[in-house]
TrEMBL record:
Pfam families reported for this sequence: Usp
Residue ranges of every copy of the UspA domain listed in the record: 147-270
Originating organism: Pontibacter anaerobius
Highest taxon in the source lineage: Bacteria
Protein name: Universal stress protein
InterPro entries: UspA (IPR006016)
Amino acid sequence: MIAIDSMMVCLDLSDIDETLVRFTRSVCERLPVKKVYFVHNIKTSELSDDFREYFGDVNISDEIEGNIADIVTEHFANCTDYEILVSEEPNTEVILADLVKRYTIKLTLLGKRMSDKSTGALGTKLLRILPCSVLVFPETASFKIARVLTPIDFSDTSLHALHLSKSLADQLGLALDIMHVYKLPTQYFPLISEEKAIKKAEEVVKERFTDMQKRHKEIAGIPYTLVRAAGKTVAERINLQLQKGKHDLLVVGLKGHNPIPSLSLGSVPTELYNMDIDIPIWLVYSEEVIK
């Protein structure tokens, strides 16, 4: 059973904040969440001397907290226990990572605009630095979730994501699909038959699925799809499968074995985040990786 002791919702005082608060309520109505922290950081570097001269001694933190409180009261009040945290720090990523550790945050909700409105630079930084799982909610996403897709590569990372997806599907009555994207060593064509190579690759992958299902009985019977990369990246194939299967949620495992933060996220999750995908993406770290 999935239960979230503490959840952090990152707000930026834009029009997406109201949507995030409403989606947070939807999450809390579906899953047991003990406490939610609505947070915003005022980057001190953005408070120019002109701003201070114009507004004088106004307490900007109190003003922003009041603004957030109005949104939360309208769209979230009486749902579950919550707290509003407004800070004034020069580095937003660092203070949010500190809050995750301080309040033992298990899941962070992060809003995402389409590429024509934002570079997504801050979001990518947060994915690399936050020591918790992240649920990315695009501005065009729907609150309705009925079908989940989980890509796997047979690593412990993707297996953890699959277990979470299965628990989520069982808990909420969702349909769950698995997919695996395989690549062929095309540099050997036409020395070997492409048709035979495809057949052999699929045989190997099916054997790995069978072995995985034997070792993890709880995921036996979940439908899976084998997709050849065929000139596209793994992330591009996943995105195409999302559209084809009309999925409402994507669950992806995050790697964490490399001690260098910039290398620990994984290329596929990074590429997926930077795409204009209009459904929520749950990027999952295992407890072992977080520790």
